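User: Design a sequence. Structure:
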């Protein structure tokens, strides 16, 4: 019975994805919103951006923008769940991870979410999104961090779709983990450098 339900659900999601693909930018926005809101469709916004950008180069910037907007605002769903439900929303996550995430959000809220939005799977972004709500991260800083991170990801996808065509999705899957980790490392270096310079200035005062 459960296998039948899973197959039926998978078929329904594929049907929804096909319909949304046909809506162009509006479809991408919807797919990205649902994916970020914890209702993932097969391939998600990544497949939508690369496929439609390859088919219509001229509209690539619009497709990228739609994915950024949909994904950014879709992340408000897990954020709101955390905000409304409180610590109980984190019960299914490991306690040690929750403690680390709490410390990071308390000290580097925007940077933490930004890095999470850039890093590829299996980074547990949903934990950070829910925790941001639980620990009452400023909403505008939350949205800004996500918008920047998603701009990096989807802009790269759109560019690769125009540049490499049908091979873009495979190339992105192969190379984005290294690119994402490199960008995250660069951000961490900026944070550490900024912290060091602040400490030096305080010592000289």
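Assistant: Done.
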């Amino acid at each position: 019975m459960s296998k039948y339900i899973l197959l039926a659900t998978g078929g329904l999601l594929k049907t929804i994805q096909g319909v949304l693909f046909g809506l162009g930018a509006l479809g991408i926005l919807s797919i990205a919103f649902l994916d970020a809101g914890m209702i993932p469709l097969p391939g998600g916004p990544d497949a939508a951006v690369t496929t439609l950008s390859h088919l219509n180069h001229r509209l690539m910037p619009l497709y990228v923008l739609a994915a950024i907007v949909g994904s950014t605002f879709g992340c408000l769903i897990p954020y709101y769940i955390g905000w409304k439900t409180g610590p109980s929303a984190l019960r299914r996550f490991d306690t040690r991870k929750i403690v680390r995430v709490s410390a990071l959000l308390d000290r580097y809220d925007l940077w933490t979410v930004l890095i999470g939005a850039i890093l590829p799977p299996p980074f547990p972004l949903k934990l950070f999104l829910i925790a941001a709500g639980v620990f009452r991260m400023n909403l505008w800083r939350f949205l800004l961090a996500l918008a920047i991170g998603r701009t990096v990801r989807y802009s790269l996808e759109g560019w690769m779709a125009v540049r490499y065509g049908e091979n873009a999705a495979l190339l992105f899957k192969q190379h984005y983990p290294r690119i994402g980790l490199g960008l995250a490392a660069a951000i961490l270096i900026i944070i550490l450098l900024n912290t060091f310079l602040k400490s030096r200035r305080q010592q000289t005062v």
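Residues 168-204 form the longest helix (37 residues). Residues 160 and 171 are 8 Å apart (CA to CA).
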